[in-house]
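Forgive a beginner's question, but would it be possible to get any protein sequence you like and the tokens describing how it folds?
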Amino acid sequence: MLKVTVMVSGGGTNLQAILDAIADGTVTNAEVVRVISNSTKAYALERAKKAGIPTACITRKQYPDPEQFDEALLALLEESGANLIVLAGCLVVIPQCVVDAFPNRIINIHPALIPSFCGTGYYGLKVHEQALARGVKVTGATVHFVDGGTDTGPILLQKAVEVKQGDTPQILQRRVMEQAEWVILPKAIDLIANDKVRVTDGTVSILD
């Protein structure tokens, strides 16, 4: 059974998609064992509590020394017993010590088709604002493994979403979540839980 710790910062819609997929059998051989947030106000924590999942909150403000935060986060993740860490709307920059401790065991959902509209500064509505400003006709979401860079890790899954006339960033964000993020993030967890993913030289292969 794959033990999953989910890291969140906000409302937790991707977390809910994961929990729903596990409940209805779309995701098999996996369980969420902990939800960690960097905000005490994150509604995702309430979603976790309603599902009976232990929660924790850790913020950089608690630690005057950045290295202390890094070490505390690593200790919290290791204590959770996780085999896989899922960044589901998590705005924390993952420390290198955590990346090193969980090689190819951290995945992130990004609301664009990497390498478009990704990297430092591209998160939340900003991604969709830039997509609309550029006038792209297709956007989407990407699940990728986390490495030492920002949105630079091996790509696991992608799903395209149409950009429509009259879209606002908020409307486009919702469509990307509904049609892509909530679909491919649970699917990625299921593939990993059932040992169907291989990473070789920075490239992902999915087994039949």
Notes: The CA atoms of residues 70 and 95 lie 6 Å apart. The first strand starts at residue 2 and ends at 8.
